[in-house]
């Protein structure tokens, strides 16, 4: 059996695409994921309270939002499977996908919404305190009451790290920018903003050795990369900004990607370098990485796929 449309990914982009595609009678089949690239539902499944998604004035938890979106997609007829796509043959249509369970699936069109995985520090204490003072998204979590008027830390030295630090200055009493080298990797404009901001202090040549706290983060143990000396930095929150990895390994380099590995889409469209394949969400967005922007591109991808299938003679 060949599906009209297969969607890979069950975050905001994939589920929104599924809702729109199902309502357009495209009978979408969706891979929720299982282990590769994170759990079904994406990064919001490990996000506590979301206060910036429209329509929820009191906020909503990440898992609750994803459960609502999943239910809505199913209600409109989306079929789903909890499985990963391990391999893809995109040279000819119908496209062929191989799942982790060893099953083969074929599709006339694809929407890739497999997301990106935030790089995290490989520490047991980081895992234990994740979501309890440790986050990978200041825009998502920085305004929470637990962080307001407290001293916070951002780990990283690129543009994203500085953007996170600048965002946090709206709420924190002070923000420490922790960088393992003696110079930042960010652009000169961003460096200037960080260095000139009264609330930001850059801690050079420092790496996090341990996250401290019983049930909630209380501080960081830092090691100086030059002297080897350790010190303790009391903070109420730590935001890891050490990059993301787009979940595209199953594509085997067939689609055009940028220098960071994100899928390239045509301007004003979700179309990729291969006809009939569309990309939405964080797998193609290294700039915004927000639930609402992912959902928006999911809508775009479904509409683009609908028009493409119609033009190819597949009636919705």
Structure description:
β1 (2-8), α1 (12-23) and β2 (29-31) form a beta-alpha-beta unit. Strands 1, 2, 5, 6, 7, 8 and 19 form a 7-stranded mixed sheet that branches. The protein has a 5-stranded parallel sheet with strand order 10-17-11-12-13. It has a 3-stranded antiparallel sheet with strand order 14-15-16. The protein has helices at residues 12-23, 62-75, 124-129, 138-141, 159-168, 188-196, 291-311; strands at 2-8, 29-31, 49-50, 60-61, 79-81, 85-89, 95-99, 104-112, 116-118, 134-135, 151-155, 174-178, 200-203, 206-212, 219-224, 230-233, 237-240, 244-246, 277-279. The radius of gyration is 21 Å and the shape is elongated. With 316 residues, the chain is α/β, with parallel strands linked by helices. The chain has 2 domains: 2-118 and 244-311, 3-Layer(bba) Sandwich (FAD/NAD(P)-binding domain), CATH 3.50.50.60; 124-240, FAD/NAD(P)-binding domain (3-Layer(bba) Sandwich), CATH 3.50.50.60.
Largest sheet: 7 strands, mixed
- What is the CATH C level class of the largest domain, in words? Alpha Beta
Number of continuous helical runs: 7
What is the chains' assembly state?
single chain
List the helices and strands and how they pair.
Elements: E1 2-8, H1 12-23, E2 29-31, E3 49-50, E4 60-61, H2 62-75, E5 79-81, E6 85-89, E7 95-99, E8 104-112, E9 116-118, H3 124-129, E10 134-135, H4 138-141, E11 151-155, H5 159-168, E12 174-178, H6 188-196, E13 200-203, E14 206-212, E15 219-224, E16 230-233, E17 237-240, E18 244-246, E19 277-279, H7 291-311
Parallel strand pairs: 1-2, 1-8, 2-5, 8-19, 10-17, 11-12, 11-17, 12-13
Antiparallel strand pairs: 3-4, 6-7, 7-8, 9-18, 14-15, 15-16
């Amino acid at each position: 059996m060949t599906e009209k449309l297969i969607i890979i990914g069950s975050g905001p982009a994939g589920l929104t695409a599924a809702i729109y595609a199902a309502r357009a009678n495209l009978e979408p089949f969706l891979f929720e994921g299982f282990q590769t690239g994170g759990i079904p539902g994406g990064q919001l499944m490990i996000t506590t309270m979301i206060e910036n998604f429209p329509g929820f004035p009191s906020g909503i938890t990440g898992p609750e939002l994803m459960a609502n979106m999943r239910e809505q997609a199913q209600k409109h007829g989306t079929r789903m499977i909890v499985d990963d796509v391990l391999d893809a043959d995109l040279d000819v249509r119908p496209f062929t996908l191989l799942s982790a369970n060893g099953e083969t699936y074929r599709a006339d069109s694809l929407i890739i919404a497999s997301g990106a995985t935030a790089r995290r520090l490989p520490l047991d204490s980081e895992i234990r305190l994740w979501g309890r003072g440790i986050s990978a998204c200041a825009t998502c979590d920085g305004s929470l009451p637990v962080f307001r008027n407290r001293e916070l830390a951002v780990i990283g030295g690129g543009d994203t790290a500085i953007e996170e630090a600048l965002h946090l200055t709206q709420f924190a009493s002070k923000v420490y920018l922790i960088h393992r080298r003696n110079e930042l990797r960010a652009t000169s404009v961003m460096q200037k903003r960080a260095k000139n901001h009264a609330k930001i202090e850059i801690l050079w040549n420092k790496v996090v050795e341990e996250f401290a706290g019983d049930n909630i983060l209380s501080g960081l143990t830092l090691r100086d990369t030059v002297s080897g000396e350790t010190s303790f930095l009391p903070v109420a929150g730590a935001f890891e900004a050490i990059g993301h990895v787009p979940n595209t390994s199953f594509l085997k380099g067939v689609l055009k990607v940028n220098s960071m590995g994100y899928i390239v889409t045509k301007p004003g469209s979700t179309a990729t370098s291969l006809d009939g394949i569309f990309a939405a969400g964080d797998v193609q967005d290294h700039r915004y990485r927000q639930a609402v922007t992912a959902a928006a591109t999911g809508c775009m991808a479904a509409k683009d796929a609908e028009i493409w299938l119609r033009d190819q003679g597949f009636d919705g």
